Fold this sequence. Notes:
Two copies of one chain form a homodimer. Chain A has ten helices and three strands, in the order ααβααββαααααα. By secondary structure, chain A is mostly helical. Chain A has two domains: 4-89, Arc Repressor Mutant, subunit A, CATH 1.10.10.10; 94-231, Four Helix Bundle (Hemerythrin (Met), subunit A), CATH 1.20.120.530. The two termini of chain A are 22 Å apart. Mean pLDDT of chain A is 90; it is low at 5-14. Chains A and B meet through α4, α5 and α8 of A and α3, α4 and α7 of B. Chains A, B: GO terms for molecular function: DNA binding; DNA-binding transcription factor activity. Chains A, B: This is GntR family transcriptional regulator.
Amino acid sequence: MTTAEDTTPTADADRDRPAGSAEYAHTAGWVASVLRARIAAGDLTPGTKLSEQTLSTSLGVSRNTLREAFSALAGESVITRIPNRGVFVASPGIEEVREIYRVRRAIEPAAVLWGELSAEALESMESIVQRALTARDDGAVADMADANQALHSSVVDLTGSSSLRVLMDRVLAEMRLVFHAMTSAPDFHAHFVERNVRLVERLRAGDRLAAAEGLRAYLDDAETELVRRIST
Amino acid sequence: MTTAEDTTPTADADRDRPAGSAEYAHTAGWVASVLRARIAAGDLTPGTKLSEQTLSTSLGVSRNTLREAFSALAGESVITRIPNRGVFVASPGIEEVREIYRVRRAIEPAAVLWGELSAEALESMESIVQRALTARDDGAVADMADANQALHSSVVDLTGSSSLRVLMDRVLAEMRLVFHAMTSAPDFHAHFVERNVRLVERLRAGDRLAAAEGLRAYLDDAETELVRRIST
DNA sequence: CTCACCGGAATTGTTGAACAATTCCCTGCC
DNA sequence: GGCAGGGAATTGTTCAACAATTCCGGTGAG
Lengths: 232, 232
């Protein structure tokens, strides 16, 4: 089992804690954001154990404060808590992937079909698609993945709902965990850039029902593709 | 400002804490569930301050453990945390109500349109509608409200997604807070029982698009009605 | 050699006390 | 009545301790 201290053998205590003492409030929130970022960046890979002792000294906070941060992160299902065993970076399996796509197949087409489709939103989406296209042609895999996720985020934003945005962010974070858990996630997104283009085209044309149905088919295919890659 | 201790002047320490010492694990989780239940039951009304000192002694847990529970509840937006001021039972206003209906207008029609509509699910929904009807005729307002909420929960369940179920439960809990904040929530649900009947009828008939659109109109009306009641 | 068992060491779960920083609230002054 | 000042209460955070549990290495039996 991997442990967090493996990646940082030397303790980097107090790494840029918010200001000397003025930004006093909410250390726990700061800790949670740091851990969230490290996990999202792949610095902490799925399954890694987060030892209370090690992390608290490494971050320069007390064990109690760290536990408070853990409580918040557990609610976001970013980490998994096993009683008396400790907390681990969540490592999503096939069932989690299916759940991810259940959520996406519900809220993304709903946003496409019923969201408020302003001109700015449409232009923003078109520029994002363009970014994905150039990234693909340049072979910039990470940029392409980012652009793809950004597109689907802005799709959900069509609903205007912050809660759905939060849920989508959580889901995309979990997706990133899935990719981190795979030994290599090469060109998963490449197959889907074209379909994103078509999605935006249909939206531009005002054919929202076709856009929604196409998006559902897109998500179906992405799910089976991802499940296939995990299973093998 | 109301405070929690007003409702329980005499400290009821250790009120049915899970077993003598065997169910040791997860005191914080237990505390969170207790608070969640008390808030949902209207025992703790919106705006009530939750004092750390009072609550920790009243529940027989340490202040640190209580804070851990607070972290979890804040993530569910059941409580509001104001730095250096304390935590309060969330008191949703108009903007929160609008957000609630943004979420519902997205995920409920999506479930109706694209969810897996099994025979059992349909029968369950029909029995729930029946329950709401008899409750309305008996003047059992609380039962009717419960049945209505149960119906919409089972609508979301058509997606098969636990995350969406959790989100819906959170939203309905917030709705209950809205009602608790109103001096009296008399027959808000009565207007909508008929429309629930029609919703299920359309589902039974297999006309999912009409069901989805009807549900969206339903939610629009419910939102404006609720906003109107709050504003006055 | 494998495996079950056992005891110490490490880790988690939880508590209580302490202290700085902030906010609350009451009092006295104009 | 309004306003400044100054304890008192409350929050934010840390530290040290302890029970309960799990982990880990060795030991002995088969």
